[in-house]
Amino acid sequence: MKKIIKSAIFWTIVLIFGLILLNSQGLLKKPKNYLYSLVSPSQKSSSQIAYKISNFFYLIKNIKNLNDQNSDLKEKNLLLEGRIAQLKEIEKENEFLRKQTGLSFPAAKKLILANIIGKQPTNLGEYVFINKGQKDGVEAEAAVILPGDILVGRVKEVWFSMAKILLITDSNSLVSAIVQQTRIQGVVKGQSLPQELTLDLVLPSESLEKDQAVVSSALNDVFPQGLLIGQVEQVISSDPQIFQKAKIKPAADFNKLEKLFVIIK
Amino acid sequence: MKYYIILAILLFASIFQISFLSFFTFYQASLDLILVIILLIAVLDNFKKYWLLIIISGLFLDCFSALPFGAISLSLLASVYLLERLKKDFFGYINFGLILILIAIGTVSYNLLVMLLSRILKFDFQINWLYNLIYLMPQEIIYNIILASFIYYALKKISAKK
Questions:
Q1: Model-level pTM?
Q2: Which of A171, A167, A168, A176 is nearest to A221 (CA)?
Q3: CA of B162, closest CA in chain A: separation in Å?
Q4: Domain segments of chain A: what residues?
Q5: Nearest C-alpha of chain A: how many angstroms from B157?
Q6: What ipTM is given for this predicted complex?
Q7: Which CATH class is domain A109-265?
Q8: What distance in Å separates the CA atoms of residue B144 and residue B33, rounded to the nearest whole number?
């Protein structure tokens, strides 16, 4: 026993468990703040170099498909421009009707632009670190989106100059969602796979169809309603299961995230 | 090598791991530079000399990890200890092939321990076990073996020049 107590291993384990205890009580927040403030400038520059290199390799990898992608995107762009024109008309109509009926206008979202400066050091979990923190107004549990109101994740932890974002693809993430066209309700679960989500807890009586858009629902405490999550890719239903499931193709490309918006509550 | 040089290398490697290497994934798995360096220290030298450095790098990574605090440092510590025991009790002479085998064993034990400790330290922490064990871990073993070979030969060349 004396030998064990005298050994370095024993005291190291005691030290780590002590730190785990302090961390669980939130007492390591201040030292962590100092550490992040010290490290974040070098993180920012090295992550930018990493982006440049990875974009270069992505370009080389996809150079053959660029022509096809370009014509596809041009086609989609035309369709979307037409859709935007239609929606602008509907928006004006909606504005007029709101004024007539005395309904209030929904408040515009306040957004903070942030850069990703780090990722999870192990292969476990889908988290990223951003260069905005408490000093910029970022709060815990705030929703994180991409341009076009595409849901990416939520702020899990926030420090003075940095924040940790839990991506919706992580297996610890749950988002209350609805299918936009049919208003079918469910829960979107992450699978810890970069491009895969599952819509779960859908009643068997509901009919899910491929390519339907899935958005965040009003049942969320964290996420505002109507943020795009993805599209139904495959419906998974079998007799013994109580609920239906569907494989969702995320709207965001999680392999190429670089800049994000944090929604201020 | 001097103690403070190794500390600087480990801290630099940790920052490099978080903000550079983790951006490059090959079939979803990325290189684990810090694990490879620490496992090489354990295999090539007496790890007791660098005990404190291993703890510092483990705790540093814990601060930047999404896993429950302490999971990485405890796993690193246990894996390094396992390699030390294997080296002392089972293998006398260390050659290149054996180094690679020990790196593979260290990677497996580290990954298993990280997953287990994450669940123990935070009971509701969700892990995709199947995906990690069957898909990610074998890839990580291969990447770490390749990286360890490069570092080993670089170290050999540096020491030959000296």
A1: 0.82
A2: A176
A3: 31
A4: 2-61, 65-101, 109-265
A5: 27
A6: 0.81
A7: mainly beta
A8: 8
